[in-house]
Amino acid sequence: MRLYIDPGTGSMLFAILLGMFSALIWLMKGWIVKLRFFFSGGKKADAAEEKLPLVIYSEGKRYWNVFEPVCRELNARGFDTVYMTSSEDDPALSCGMEHLDARFIGAGNKAFARLNFVSANVLLSTTPGLEVYQWKRSKAVDFYVHMLHGPVEVTGYRMFALDYYDAVMLSGQYQYEDERKLEELRNLPAKELVMAGIPFMDELKHRLENSPAVDNHGQRVVLLAPSWGASAIFSRFGGRILDVLLKTDYHIIVRPHPQSFTSEKELMDKLMQQYPDSERLEWNRDADNFDVLRRSDILVSDFSGVLFDFSLVFDKPVIYADTEFDNSPYDACWLDTPFWTFTALPRIGEQLGKDDLEKLPEMIEECLTEPRYAEGRRQVREETWCYPGEGAKRVADYLIAKCEELRKEEGSEQ
């Protein structure tokens, strides 16, 4: 009979073992410091000299677009940064920035085991769940900073996701208010909440402003970019949505989520065989979605974050699928305030319900011609994208100042 350990129990056992290992490591480090003190003739060992000023941790290469503008700004200022990634092919590893020391540290538990012993003044990450799952606060890291990876809610993470961070970089007042309410409800110490903006959206806007105009020869271009999973567009509508779109005069670009080709390979293979590339339809799997977003007049998606990239940066309307949202696993269930995303979406586009598929062409025309959606985009942009064009500078300003502050405190204690 084989011994079976479910994933939850396995995660708990790993956390316990890692905690015991951590305690042993720190005990050994304490002995080493005492020995160094003894053999140095009573001179205090300088542990701070081994501490890194700033570490950035990335779960993988898909977050490079979030961190790259900040890394570039830090590099331009000559500020040395260590970038730890869980992707062997992360673009950071070959970006060539002089002051960025990029390192592959493994994935999953291997990465967390490394992070749990890292020594730094400041650690920046987009990864939630610090101190909740396997990733624990290192005793040798003074300050943890979380940066959101888009115009999203702080309450959209699973419960307690940001509770053990010391600071959070924000882009909208609603995020600030929700985080303060959570802290009050849970009797948590107040974090440093920094209004900084959205560096990667600044980067997209800059690219757009410096790109040539697109000539679609008078033909409307519809981008269908579904996410993946049971609630996503292709799982709900299958090829019927392509049938409806192909009855129109639009040019159709289909760009599924990359995970679809792994988790839903059978479905993707079937759809690509039934609806092959043609003059009317093209499948897009480019690593960078900038060109297809720029070419398209309207986006049809579900719950993908690309909805806000397309609407707020490219200033174009969207159609979003009706998806049911159960907030019980998320921090949102602690608050009685509305989920901001669900107040924003109706202002920037139309909702595609389960019985609305045949009306999709009419919905597309309304979104493209109705002026209220342009006004809605302006409102939503103001609510969730503070300091446009200044995000990387403001994040770098804060990180450098915080590192310097902590280094001075260390110096005064010695």
Q: Structural class, please? A: alpha/beta
Counting structural domains, the number is: 2
Q: CATH superfamily assignment of the largest domain?
A: Glycogen Phosphorylase B
Mean pLDDT: 88
Structural commentary:
By secondary structure, the protein is an alpha/beta fold. The protein folds into 2 domains: 45-198 and 389-413, P-loop containing nucleotide triphosphate hydrolases (Rossmann fold); 205-384, Glycogen Phosphorylase B (Rossmann fold, 3-Layer(aba) Sandwich). It is 42% helix and 15% strand. The chain has 15 helices and 13 strands. It has a 7-stranded parallel beta sheet with strand order 3-2-1-4-5-6-7. A 6-stranded parallel beta sheet has the order 10-9-8-11-12-13, sandwiched between helices. Strand 6 (167-170), helix 4 and strand 7 (192-195) form a beta-alpha-beta unit. Helix 2 (64-76) crosses helix 15 and helix 12 packs antiparallel against helix 14. The longest helix has 33 residues, at 7-39. The model is unreliable at 1-9 and 18-49 (pLDDT under 50).
